[in-house]
Specification:
- The chain is mainly α.
- Helix 2 packs antiparallel against helix 3, helix 2 packs antiparallel against helix 4 and helix 4 packs antiparallel against helix 5.
- The longest helix has 31 residues.
- The protein has two domains: 32 residues; 150 residues, Ferritin, core subunit, four-helix bundle (Ferritin), CATH 1.20.1260.10.
Length: 189
């Protein structure tokens, strides 16, 4: 039996469409991320969330306290840091929501900080951002191990913010060491 050109084209087109659909289905199944949602990543996101809520709470209180002391410049720096920590907490919340992970109840119980001891306050803040950077770094590593580049990439700016905080608070401590606490405080008004 001799087929017409239109029959041959139709047959060829149907074969192509079937082949393309089969390859698309294979591509889709190949693209399914195995273990995309890692329990380790979710737990590290929760840890990061709690650290950032604690920092938001403490830094907000410190900003009010420093402003009351009359250290307006330092209070403004701490207030901006508190806003950044709030943004970081919201990023963690958004990612946990994406994974439909239960992050309740939040356990925001920051350790107490000494209100009238500037050096202790700065050391407290330094320890807090160091803890945050460790959690963020661990989240990036765990996310990449699970094949979750999106979470890893989301955490990079948070890690950078924490590392900026480390530089800031270490810088404050170096200034105090070099110029003395009274001189440091005198330039914060």
């Amino acid at each position: 039996m001799i087929k017409s050109i239109s029959e041959l084209l139709s047959e060829h087109t149907n074969q192509k469409v079937g082949s393309i659909m089969a390859s698309d289905n294979k591509l889709l199944s190949d693209q399914e991320a195995k273990n995309y949602m890692s329990n380790d990543v979710v737990e590290l996101l929760k840890k990061s969330l709690n650290i950032h809520w604690q920092q938001t709470t403490v830094l907000s209180a410190q900003a009010v306290h420093l402003d009351r002391w009359g250290y307006k410049k330092l209070a403004e720096i701490i207030k901006e840091d508190a806003k950044q920590e709030h943004e970081h907490a919201m990023i963690n919340l958004s990612r946990l929501e994406f994974f439909d992970a239960d992050y309740q109840p939040l356990s925001v119980q920051p350790p107490s900080w000494k209100r009238h001891d500037m050096i202790a306050m700065i050391k407290y803040n330094l320890a807090s951002v160091q803890e945050a950077s460790q959690a963020e770094r661990a989240t990036i590593v765990a996310a990449r191990a699970a094949g979750d580049e999106i979470t890893a990439n989301i955490m990079i700016p948070l890690l950078q913010g924490s590392e900026d905080g480390i530089i800031l608070y270490e810088g404050f401590l170096k200034l105090i060491e070099q110029m003395g606490l009274d001189n440091f405080l005198s330039i914060q008004a």
